[in-house]
Amino acid sequence: PLQPQRAKPVPKTSRKSQKKKREPALASSYIKQVFRHYAKMPVARDAYQIIEKCCEKYFKQLSDDLEVYAHHAGRKTVEMADLELLMRRQRLVTDKMPLHVLIERYLPMEYRKLLIPVAVSGNKVIPSK
After folding, report:
1. pLDDT of 75-99, one tens digit each?
2. Do 109 and 98 fall into the same domain?
3. What was the pLDDT predicted at 113?
């Protein structure tokens, strides 16, 4: 007599191998919000994809440059001086436009408090080094 064939068991794959690893990136909603703020006019949806790619390339180049500056100085940590040097080379920071003016102009108050030293009562400076 004929016997029914048994189905071959399919090997189970782990969920970890199925997940595609993504590189960290800025949220697309954040990029749209910032671009809308500075563009002051409507922007087509397909233009945002190009803007996101440009932002990704810009920040990749920025991080690579900061890494090179720290390596050149013999350090493994990027410091504020590296960022200021990069901004000077990009001509964002000049003698007429120092870094703290850019910080005050474009960053929210909670970040300003962390980056710009302020003297308070009791002869203390915040943030302390």
Report:
1. 999 998 898 899 999 998 898 988 8
2. yes
3. 80
Same domain, 44 and 66: yes
As for how many domains the chain has, the answer is 2
- As a whole number of angstroms, the distance between CA 92 and CA 39 comes to 19
In angstroms, the CA 73 to CA 66 distance is 11
Q: Which domain holds residue 55?
A: 25-77
Answer whether 0.70 is exceeded by the pTM: no
Please compute Rg for the chain using Cα positions.
25
Report residue 59: phi and psi, to 5°: -70, -30
Query: Would you say residue 2 lies in a domain?
Result: no
Structural contact between residues 99 and 84, judged by C-beta atoms closer than 8 angstroms: yes
Q: Specify burial of residue 82 (Cβ count, 10 A radius: 0-12, 13-18, 19+).
A: buried
Give the pairing of strands 124-126 and 118-120: antiparallel
| Residue 127 burial (CB count, 10 A) | 10
Any idea what the CATH number is for the domain that residue 57 is in? 1.10.20.10
129: in domain: no
